[in-house]
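Quick log. Single chain, no ligands specified.
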Amino acid sequence: MKNEKLKKEFTDEKTGISYTLVGNYYLPNLTLEQEEKITLNKYGLLRLDYLKKHKKADYIILFMNKELHKHLRVIQELAQTRVNELIEQLKANSDLTEDMKNTDILYWVGTMNAIKNQAEEIVLKELIYV
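-> predicted structure:
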């Protein structure tokens, strides 16, 4: 066996892949490009589940183009903002006052829960399940 001096690194001109010498073998310098990681909230998880079950083609396209996490982040931010806006609008249209927190707590809590549920139902139909 000849004692040849091997290059530490080289790039294949055909493929454009660079290689590094490890022991007696050249290994390709491959990296996996990843999407940014985000923490999904309720709306992001619901959207992801809906895409997987009912919009498989859209899910695969977003996933393959590395746009799935960006899409889910945008949807969950829009959904949270819209829910908060709707709660404020519905609260303004109801007969709730801040005094009711102290005088009739059960009525106030029940009404606020109904308003929140109504706002979430609207957002689910507008943004999540489309």
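The mean pLDDT is 89.
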